[in-house]
Design a protein that fits this description.
The chain is α+β, with helices and mostly antiparallel strands. The chain has one domain. Helix content is 39%, strand content 19%. Strands 2-1-4-3 form a four-stranded antiparallel beta sheet.
Length: 118
């Protein structure tokens, strides 16, 4: 069993990740509120991403990584990567690019909806 995370706008999936549990926890912690009263889907806003960025700074420091260790582009294969098959330190290097990608979209188009399934 895994955790699939999708980011949506107007019913269209813009971005997804598989089993990125720690990133999901930070997103949920910074949630912009539930979309519907009876569902657990939540809004992802710039405030949400600020919580994720704080988590990333702490994790980078704990692992001895610097911003120079971050990957600036998200390769196509990253979308289908099952995070359970990767080392945390390796995954962490991609997350600043994920935050930047999501933030750019939010600035241009407004909050996203994060939907998940286990």
């Amino acid at each position: 069993m895994g955790l699939d995370i999708g980011f949506y706008r107007d019913g269209e999936e813009l971005f997804y990740l598989r089993n990125h549990d720690d990133l999901f926890e930070a997103l949920a912690e910074g949630s912009g509120g539930n979309v519907y009263e009876t569902y657990s889907d939540f809004y992802v806003s710039l405030g949400t991403l600020a919580v994720v960025a704080t988590m990333l700074k702490k994790e980078f420091a704990a692992l001895g990584l610097t911003t120079a260790d971050a990957v600036s582009d998200i390769p196509e294969k990253f979308y289908d990567l099952d995070a359970r098959d990767a080392e945390w330190k390796d995954l962490l290097r991609y997350y600043p690019a994920v935050v930047t990608f999501l933030a750019k979209d939010i600035v241009e188009n407004g909050p996203l909806i994060c939907s998940w399934s286990a």
